[in-house]
Amino acid sequence: SFLVPYLIMLFVEGMPLLYMELAVGQRMRQGSIGAWRTISPYLSGVGIASVVVSFFGTIYYNVINAWSFWYLFHSFQDPLPWSVCPLNGNHTGYEEECEKASSTQYFWYRKTLNISPSIQETGGVQWEPALCLILAWLMVYLCILRGTESTGKIEQLANPKTWVNAATQIFFSLGLGFGSLIAFASYNEPSSNCQKHAITVSLINSSTSIFASIVTFSIYGFKATFNYESCLNKVILLLTNSFDLEDGSVTASNLEQVKDYLASTDPSRYSEVVPLIKNCSLESELDTAVQGTGLAFIVYTEAIKNMEVSQLWSVLYFFMLLVLGIGSMLGNTAAILTPLTDSKVITSHLPKEAISGLLCLISCAVGLVFTMEAGNYWFDIFNDYAATLSLLLIVLVETIALCYVYGLRRFENELQAMTGRALNWYWKAMWACVSPLLIIGLLFFYLSDYIITGTLQYQAWDATQGQLVTKDYPAYALAVIGLLVASSTMCIPLVALGTFIMHRYKRGDTAPVA
């Protein structure tokens, strides 16, 4: 149900808009702010909005690299620390929280995050994740030091949220709207075949994503089956001990018949045992799939711990995750640094190395918020709300500005003169009509979904139950969410308004005196 919208979004949104941003960067030879200012002075806010979104992404995304470092360092232990539950204080059994959850969940929520029960209980900074975050930012700074010189169910198809999620995945994976594509493309040779680059990158990106999804769903299935069988074994053991049954007499195939038999022959004792019997369901296990960061640090570690030579696979996996994360950070920081270094006002006072250092230092300092006990809840806020709506709006304004402000025919002629290749009907149809109309539809569904949903909620970890529970965001968290969305999206109309006022003011100053 997700694959169909994903592929449609790839061809009507991802590929055309990737080509558009690469072409704009290569033609204008500037970062996002300068590129859109060249198209129209009133559009400087589009570039600023991209920089703001990239800054938000930079702040929280490197926390993932910090967690990757944390898991990588622990991958050299035998056994892996998330493969078994630790003993309790009396050494008479396992930690209760770990027994109720799982060893991988316990290591993630308790040992890695030391998560608080709610977002209101902030707690202090966890020094180990904080040190890993500093290390991650040091790695990013060393990489950018010199700067860039060259460069399920079918009815889900009717659910608008599925299409929004598919579009969001395309936007994030290709980096649309962040300004990083424009920044990188500005270093291309003018004759570079950016159309070929857009097609190649889009197809390779989506192919690897689909391949990764096959692995992911295989692991989902394995984990769900493993949890289901473990649940059945616990129920069988409970019934065997409670009713003094012969070992092996109760199996997964005859469990329901045995429960009916016990309920009819010994109803009083069975009624005492019923509250302890878990409802084991393979479908419910599959429906409670972990998403986001939990996918990388809970589901995959569940699979790794059951592999032969698990330490080797763990090191390889988290090293891969770290390399991917650092690569994403280079794109995010380039989207911020390129417009800053394009400014002669800034570069005349600070060298590129100092600008890069300040960006990393400020981002690291703010990012320490995510290493607090409630930090993961704030991480989810940034991950869910800092970019999604903003990216849709930014890319919508970009397509409208290029086609109807700058002029599609004008840009087509310039692109042909620059690359020697004509723009075919597919790209023109997508840019001028299909892509912007679809984005408008997605924006409508995105906003209406949140209006219908009502109060925004989040998943909090309940240590007493060993599972996630749903809670409402407090008022100040909702205020932060609103600020995150407004701080980027409002850049577009406010800068346009400011530019209009400045032009009117200058026009008034130069008006002839009667």
TrEMBL record:
The chain crosses the membrane at residues 6-24, 45-73, 127-145, 166-187, 315-337, 385-408, 429-453, 473-497. One of its GO terms (cellular component) is apical plasma membrane. The keyword Membrane applies. One of its GO terms (molecular function) is L-proline transmembrane transporter activity. One of its GO terms (biological process) is glycine transport. The keyword Transport applies. It is found in: Membrane. Its main location: membrane. PROSITE patterns: NA_NEUROTRAN_SYMP_2, NA_NEUROTRAN_SYMP_3. Na(+) binds at S173, N205, L324, S328. It comes from the Eukaryota. Keywords: Membrane, Metal-binding, Sodium, Transmembrane, Transmembrane helix, Transport. It is a multi-pass membrane protein. InterPro entries: Na/ntran_symport, SNS_sf. This is Solute carrier family 6 member 20. It comes from Marmota marmota marmota (Alpine marmot).
